[in-house]
Write a structure and sequence with these properties.
By secondary structure, the chain is an alpha+beta fold. It has helices at about 10-15, 20-25, 45-60, 65-94; strands at about 5, 35, 40-45. It has a 3-stranded antiparallel sheet.
């Protein structure tokens, strides 16, 4: 059976990320941490975003508020792109 959750400690050890950074991401609502047998864990579906946020923070030196703003803007751009695609499809049907 495939593992669906990774402990925050394990992730931090492998990726050399501070646990406090991940806690701040959760407090900002950017990721969700759950407790499994007294261990903080993150679902594997969130690893892509966690990797992205970690990269922005450690390589680009962007703080949590900046990460929140960038993530919000990227999500908005994605929604607008989907809307444009939908409108193009509607125009092509006519």
């Amino acid at each position: 059976m495939k593992k669906q959750y990774i402990t925050i400690k394990e992730y931090c050890k492998v990726r050399k990320v501070e646990e406090s950074f991940i806690i701040r991401l959760e407090q900002s609502g950017l990721i969700e941490i759950i407790l499994i047998e007294e261990e903080r864990c993150i679902h594997e579906s969130q690893l892509h975003n966690l990797e992205k946020f970690s990269e922005w923070h450690y390589e680009l030196e962007i703080g949590t508020p900046g990460i929140e703003a960038i993530h919000h803007l990227l999500m908005k751009v994605e929604r607008l792109q989907e809307e444009v695609q939908h409108l193009k499809e509607r125009l092509n049907k006519d």
